[in-house]
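Today's session is about reading a structure prediction critically. Students often jump straight to the picture, but the first step is always the sequence itself: look for stretches that repeat, for charged clusters, for runs of hydrophobic residues. Only then move on to the predicted structure, which in these notes is written as discrete structure tokens rather than atom positions. Here is the chain we will use throughout the hour.
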Amino acid sequence: MKLIATVKPDQPVKKSLPILKAVGCSFKPQLISFLKIVAKPVNPLPDWHPNKGKQALLLVDEVFIN
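Below is the predicted structure for this chain, in token form.
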């Protein structure tokens, strides 16, 4: 296994309405047999969040690989 890309999405700095947001990642075309995706939630949640101090939920609905 080798690291082929890293993405760190911008974190919100204030409370806002919930949204669905696509996070994209690009890497050079290559032949692969397996792909491991590591995603980590915000930990701990910031002071402005209603659940401050607790670990965030990370919900993934779909993964598209093209």
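Discussion point for the tutorial: The mean pLDDT is 86.
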